């Protein structure tokens, strides 16, 4: 029986008392952490916003790495590589993250005081809060599902995602990661500093908006006759619609039978901020750092059909469709899909 089920079966009053007791234990730990948290916050903001701007590193990619760090320490997804990476990464502070979240991490580990950071929801019950974490887990699963059967894996807009390093080490599959020049250069430098082996991955700097990523991929040794997995995680929302369409059409052109393109889409309503004020605030912050969210799909009517028809326009057939929050009475806001060449 899972811990969650056991807790559900406890009488309400007992659950309330346990929670109260946990809060009473948590408060002094949090008080001890306050001075460190203040310093950590200042260091963290300086590195995430100041240093990243100076180095021209993608802020949205930093945020995605931060979430992987959080998931590791809150026991929802082990990721030692991302932690080792963060420790040497110039645009994030391991100390800053620990000092701001340490009291919660310790309280969860010592006496089970769980906040939303340490909880995973059931499939179909994803909310906006849980999306950042669940999406990472779902893309991990896609990668795990295909890693042994594919001959090539391409991550366009890989950011600081280290899943390819985790799952393809020692394997036969060829891996290509593309991202903007500065982001990718800082990634490789940080991998070296952290002593993380990465020599089997080909890193290709590119700007989708102004360069042909296909030419660069082919120059780097991509083989059009080989079965390929494209993993396009949370990139399209930062691109203009015509660039998204063109990128997908080109991916379709590069696919032989059995190749898969996995990606995610946000709804237009989500991007406009109609669905959540908090999400709107986060997107505005990322936009102020130079990455406005631009591309979404109208999911207000029949989201599955809308995504399917968009993919069709790009020469793709949808083979898998996962809509977040499908079991909840909420407006569709996000989905992960797999597709193959039409
Ligand atoms: C939210 S991050 C996602 C990173 C990674 N896929 C992950 O899940 O952690 C978006 C990524 O898209 C990249 N990106 C956005 N616009 C781009 C462009 N025009 N050319 C190349 N990469 C771009 C950013 O540099 C960033 O790494």
Structure description:
With 342 residues, the protein is α/β, with parallel strands linked by helices. The chain has two domains: 3-118, no CATH class; 128-341, Rossmann fold, CATH 3.40.50. It contains 13 helices and seven strands. A seven-stranded mixed sheet has the order 3-2-1-4-5-7-6, with helices on both faces. α2 runs antiparallel to α5 (94-111). The chain is globular and about 60 Å long. The termini are far apart. Bound molecules: S-adenosylmethionine. Residues 58, 60-61, 64, 157-159, 161, 179-180, 183, 206-209, 233-235, 238-239 line the site of S-adenosylmethionine. The site of S-adenosylmethionine has 20 residues, from α3.
Relevant terms:
342 residues; alpha/beta; Rossmann fold; 7-stranded mixed β-sheet; 13% strand; globular; binds S-adenosylmethionine
Helix-strand layout with pairing:
Layout: H1 3-9, H2 12-55, H3 59-73, H4 80-88, H5 94-111, H6 128-146, E1 152-156, H7 163-168, E2 174-179, H8 181-193, E3 201-205, H9 213-219, E4 228-232, H10 241-254, E5 260-266, H11 268-272, H12 277-288, H13 303-313, E6 316-323, E7 334-341
Parallel strand pairs: 1-2, 1-4, 2-3, 4-5
Antiparallel strand pairs: 5-7, 6-7
Helix pairs in contact: 2-5, 3-4
Bound molecules: S-adenosylmethionine.
């Amino acid at each position: 029986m899972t811990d969650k089920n056991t807790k559900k079966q406890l009488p309400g009053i007992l659950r309330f008392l346990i929670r109260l007791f946990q809060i009473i234990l948590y408060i002094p730990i949090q008080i001890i952490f306050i001075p460190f948290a203040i310093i950590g916050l200042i260091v963290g903001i300086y590195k995430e916003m100041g240093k990243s701007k100076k180095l021209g590193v993608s802020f949205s990619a930093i945020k995605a790495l931060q979430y992987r760090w959080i998931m590791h320490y809150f026991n929802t997804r082990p990721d030692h590589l991302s932690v080792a990476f963060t420790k040497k990464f110039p645009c994030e502070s391991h100390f800053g993250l620990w000092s701001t979240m340490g009291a919660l991490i310790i309280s969860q580990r010592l006496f089970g005081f769980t906040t939303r950071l340490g909880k995973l929801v059931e499939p179909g019950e994803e909310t906006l809060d849980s999306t950042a974490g669940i999406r990472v887990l779902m893309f991990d699963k896609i990668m795990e599902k295909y890693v042994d059967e594919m001959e090539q894996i391409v991550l366009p807009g890989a950011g600081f995602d280290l899943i390819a390093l985790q799952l393809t080490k020692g394997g036969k599959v060829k891996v290509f990661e593309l991202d903007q020049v500065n982001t990718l250069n800082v990634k490789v430098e940080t991998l070296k500093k952290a002593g993380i082996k990465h020599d089997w991955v080909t890193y290709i700097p590119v700007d989708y908006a102004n360069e042909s990523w296909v030419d660069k991929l082919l120059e780097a040794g991509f083989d059009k006759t080989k079965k390929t997995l494209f993993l396009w995680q949370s990139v399209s929302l930062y691109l203009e619609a015509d660039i998204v369409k063109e990128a997908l059409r080109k991916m379709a052109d590069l696919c032989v039978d059995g190749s898969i393109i996995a990606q995610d889409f946000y709804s237009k309503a989500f991007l406009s901020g109609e669905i959540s004020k908090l999400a709107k605030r986060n997107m505005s912050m990322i936009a102020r750092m130079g990455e406005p969210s631009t591309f979404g799909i109208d999911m207000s009517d029949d989201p599955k059909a809308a995504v399917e028809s968009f993919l069709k326009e790009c020469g793709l057939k949808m083979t898998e469709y996962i809509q977040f929050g499908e079991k909840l009475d909420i407006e569709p806001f996000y989905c992960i899909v797999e597709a193959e060449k039409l």
